[in-house]
Structure formats: structure tokens, C-alpha cells
Specification:
Rossmann fold, alpha/beta, 7 helices, 15 strands, 2 domains, about 325 residues, about 30% strand
Length: about 325
């Protein structure tokens, strides 16, 4: 009995030791699976006439709420990482006199590097008429440009139009960016002139969410609508404010000068090219939730004079 009892004791101790030795590895696996990698496009800018300093992963702070997220990679969008898919969208509600700017827009398209694919579409009826798919042959996009029709269609909303485009955009590992020419007025809602003051468009919020989910930056340039489509001061102000809000939420730039059309769009396009030339691909780890969804993030850097622009939120898949 004594011998049998000793065997049982040693057997129990052995199994307990094996179980204890397995716990650290299991805990490590659980920790590793508790986060997922996420990559987003980040634009870096400095004041005019200042030199852009080199940025390293440790120079960028990413936070979700009060939690700091570990940065795993920060690389410039150059060389084999320079791929850019750029869709240029023109609102068909725009005044046809915008045609005065088409030569500058063609020159901008033709100046893009071979790593950039350019597509062209016209926003009308809450959809996009794609006149040229994304292609590295930039002459195709330049030649596809035409005058705006001066009509928004039956259900005209630049926000619904760009959302429709983004939902159908094929996924790849390139940067995804949109340049929109519009007055920003959501004509689909049909509430023009009914009140004075700021009005936040729900469709602009929807477009921002779709852009964040698909990793798309949206840049906007204000272009007044055709004469018969123009409205009161607050309508124009709301359109401009909402298109600017859409750009801010997606890390993009918004260009305008009051409520008047630009004398030239070339300075805006030159500034946008500087944005493209100073972009990074930032990768970091995020703790997923039970369901896939957007998580708010905030970026900052302590490098003097550098400002970072990126999405306000990033899409995170569900925990496995």
C-alpha cells in the first residue's frame, strides 16, 4: 500500500509539473493572438520652406483612447511601396466654366509617376459615371476629362456618389486616394434654404465611415455649382463645411478660398502633389473586439515642426 501510494504521489506531481510548464507558452499564444496588425496611409507636412526630416517608427505615437498602440513599421511610400490608386471625381453639378481649369488638371495627371494609377469619374444621380478606370497610362485619364454637365441629376449627392465608388473599388496594397471637385452641397436631401446655420450632412458621415473602412483618403477642391443650382449663403457654406469635414476625417486635404471659384487650381494641385510625395505607410497592432468595426485612433509626433494627417478611425477585424 505504501509503495502504491508513493507511485500515485509522484504521478500527481509529474502531471502537475507538466501542466505548470505548459502555462507560459499558452499565455504567450493568447497574448500574441490578442492583437491584429493594421496598416494606414499617413501624410507628413512641415511649414513652407522647411526641410522634411526623416521619420522613424519610434517618432510616431498612436493612441486608441488612453491606450498606446505598438508601432511595428513606418516606411515611406517610395520604391516598391510607392503604389498609389488615385481617382479624380468631378461633380456634374459644377458650373461648366470649370472647363477653364481642365488644362491644369490634365497637366497634373500627366505629371504623375508610373507608380500611380489614375481614374476619372463624374458624380451624378448619387453614383459615379466612370469614364476611365484606373490605369498607369495617364494619357487615358487626361483625355477622358470633359466639361461638367451643370446638373446634379435626380438624386445628386457627392457623398453618396463617392461612397458608391469606394464600395466597388477593388482591394490591393496600394494607397487609395480620391480627389473630388464639388461644392459639397447634398442636393439629395432637398432642404435648401429652410433654416439658417450649420447643418451636418448624414451622407458626409456615411462617406467618412466607408472611407475609413476601405482605407481611402479623400481630398476636396471647392468648385461652385452651375448658376441655376446655386442657393443661399448657408447652403453654400454648409456644402463647403461638410466637404472639408469629410477630408479631415479621412486624413485628406480640403482646398477653397471663400465661396468663390478659384482663379486657378494649379496652386491646389501643387500642394496636393507635396502631400503625395511625403506619405508613409504606418503599421501598428490593435486589440480587436468581438465584432469587426472601426476603432478611433489619434496620431502624433514629437519631431519638431512635423504634422501628421491620417484617418480618425481604422477598420479592425473581429477577434478569432
Amino acid at each position: 500500500m505504501k509503495t502504491k501510494g508513493m507511485k500515485l504521489l509522484f504521478s500527481s506531481l509529474f502531471m502537475g509539473g507538466m501542466l505548470a510548464s505548459s502555462l507560459p507558452a499558452h499565455a504567450a499564444d493568447s497574448t500574441a493572438s490578442a492583437v491584429v496588425p493594421v496598416t494606414m496611409t499617413v501624410s507628413a507636412s512641415v511649414p513652407s520652406n522647411k526641410r522634411m526630416p526623416a521619420l522613424n517608427p519610434e517618432d510616431v505615437l498612436v493612441k486608441s483612447g488612453k491606450n498606446r498602440l505598438p508601432v511595428t513599421e513606418l516606411v515611406q511610400a517610395r520604391g516598391d511601396r510607392a503604389g498609389l490608386d488615385l481617382f479624380i471625381l468631378l461633380d456634374d453639378a459644377t458650373d461648366p466654366r470649370f472647363g477653364l481649369h481642365l488644362d491644369d488638371l490634365r497637366a497634373f495627371i500627366m505629371s504623375q509617376p508610373q507608380s500611380t494609377s489614375v481614374g476619372v469619374g463624374y458624380m451624378r444621380n448619387a453614383t459615379v459615371e466612370v469614364v476611365q478606370d484606373l490605369n498607369v497610362d495617364h494619357s487615358l485619364a487626361a483625355n477622358a476629362l470633359r466639361l461638367p454637365l451643370g446638373t446634379a441629376g435626380a438624386y445628386g449627392s457627392p457623398y453618396l456618389s463617392v461612397s458608391s465608388l469606394m464600395k466597388q473599388w477593388p482591394q490591393d496594397d496600394h494607397r487609395r486616394e480620391v480627389l473630388m471637385f464639388t461644392d459639397g452641397i447634398d442636393r439629395a436631401r432637398g432642404h435648401f434654404g429652410l433654416h439658417r446655420g450649420y447643418n451636418s450632412y448624414p451622407d458626409a458621415d456615411t462617406a467618412a465611415s466607408v472611407a475609413q473602412r476601405t482605407g481611402t483618403m479623400i481630398h476636396t477642391i471647392y468648385a461652385p455649382g452651375a448658376a441655376h443650382l446655386r442657393h443661399r449663403y448657408w447652403d453654400a457654406m454648409n456644402g463647403q463645411t461638410n466637404m472639408s469635414r469629410l477630408s479631415d476625417a479621412t486624413g485628406g486635404e480640403s482646398f477653397y478660398l471663400g465661396l468663390h471659384g478659384p482663379v486657378s487650381i494649379k496652386p491646389y494641385l501643387d500642394s496636393l502633389q507635396q502631400v503625395f510625395d511625403n506619405q508613409y505607410l504606418l503599421s501598428f497592432s490593435v486589440k480587436p473586439g468581438k465584432k469587426a468595426g472601426l476603432q478611433n485612433v489619434k496620431l502624433s509626433t514629437e519631431v519638431a515642426g512635423v504634422e501628421l494627417s491620417a484617418h480618425d478611425a481604422v477598420w479592425v477585424p473581429a477577434a478569432k
